[in-house]
Structure prediction request, 90 residues.
Amino acid sequence: MKRCIYTKVDDFLLDDDFIRYAMDPSSDKDAQWASYLSAAPGIRAAFLKAYDILTHLDECELLSPEQVNHLKERVFRTLFVRDLYTFCRK
Prediction:
C-alpha cells in the first residue's frame, strides 16, 4: 500500500502504479487500490476523476489538447517500460 495519501487528481495521474491500474486492470490491482481507498475514503472523488481521465483521454475536456497528448505519451511510455521489463526477466 502507498505510504502517502493522495488528495489531488494530479497525485494519482503522476503515479505509475495508478496508471498501470487504470490502463491494465487486474484483480490484484483492484484489491490494492480498494484497500488504499478504504484507508482514506475522503480521496475517492479525486481517485475517480483521475481514473475517468485515464480511461477517457480522447473525450477529456478537463485538460488541454497538449496536456492530453503529454499524458498519453507518458501512459504509453510507462506501459512500454513495464512490458519491456517483464520481457527481459523471462
Observations:
- DSSP finds five helices and no strands in the chain.
- The radius of gyration is 14 Å.
- Residues 65-89 form the longest helix (25 residues).
